[in-house]
């Protein structure tokens, strides 16, 4: 899947996703957080060690402001205004199991396209239910587009605030809603 970077973390060089070892010590890293309004409600971002580690419809703890958070916020706002189709901020998934592998696959789904849980399950040799659970544990929704994954016969779930209604709005924003009909 990837190679170890100079810090010993696994990195997928195609998408730039860092796979964080939960047992690794990262004490002393500065943690920053911000939150801002989006068309779907208050959205928060958290940065640690120069990478976005969390996003979603909640407020995160951390020192206010950083250049990376400003860049990520701008990109999220441009995404919601329809002016951005691909994020380019550094990310780190701090969740274990198959979540990092699934998040890497989610990053490869182009704007406006969808895949099924079954498609991803075949690629990783796991049941579709395990893929769905991994999507539900995605710590950086929107930027890592778990909303682009659908069930074989329907929308599937969405663990973010607003649930499936939020997923529908994100797919409409990407003009992928026609796939739902």
Biggest sheet overview? 4 strands, mixed
Molecular shape: globular
Low-confidence stretches: 1-27
Q: What is the CATH homologous superfamily assignment of the largest domain?
A: Winged helix-like DNA-binding domain superfamily/Winged helix DNA-binding domain
- H/E series, N to C? EEEEEEEHEHEHHEH
Going across the major beta sheet, what is the strand order? Answer: 1-2-3-8
Q: What's the number of helices?
A: 5
Q: Determine the fraction of residues in helical runs and give it as a percent range.
A: 25-40%
What is the SS-derived class? alpha/beta
Number of strands: 10
CATH architecture of the largest domain: Orthogonal Bundle
Amino-to-carboxy terminus distance: 35 Å
Gyration radius, rounded? 16 Å
- The averaged pLDDT comes out at 85
CATH topology of the largest domain: Arc Repressor Mutant, subunit A
Number of domains: 2
Output the CATH class name of the largest domain.
Answer: Mainly Alpha
Strand content: 15-25%
């Amino acid at each position: 899947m990837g190679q170890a970077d100079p810090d010993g973390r696994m990195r997928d060089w195609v998408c730039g996703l860092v796979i964080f070892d939960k047992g690794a010590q990262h004490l002393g890293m500065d943690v920053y957080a911000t939150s801002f309004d989006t068309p779907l409600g208050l959205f928060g971002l958290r940065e640690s060690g120069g990478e976005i580690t969390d996003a979603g419809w909640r407020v995160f703890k951390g020192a206010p402001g950083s250049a990376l958070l400003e860049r990520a916020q701008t990109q999220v706002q441009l995404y919601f205004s329809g002016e951005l189709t691909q994020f380019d901020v550094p990310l780190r998934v701090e969740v274990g199991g198959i979540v990092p592998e699934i998040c890497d696959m989610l990053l490869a789904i182009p704007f406006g396209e969808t895949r099924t849980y079954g498609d991803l399950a075949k690629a990783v040799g796991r049941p579709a239910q395990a893929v769905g659970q991994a999507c539900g544990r995605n710590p950086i929704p929107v930027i890592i587009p778990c909303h682009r994954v659908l069930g074989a016969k329907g929308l599937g779930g969405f663990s973010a605030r607003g649930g499936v209604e939020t997923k529908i709005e994100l797919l409409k924003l990407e003009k992928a809603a026609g796939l739902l009909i």
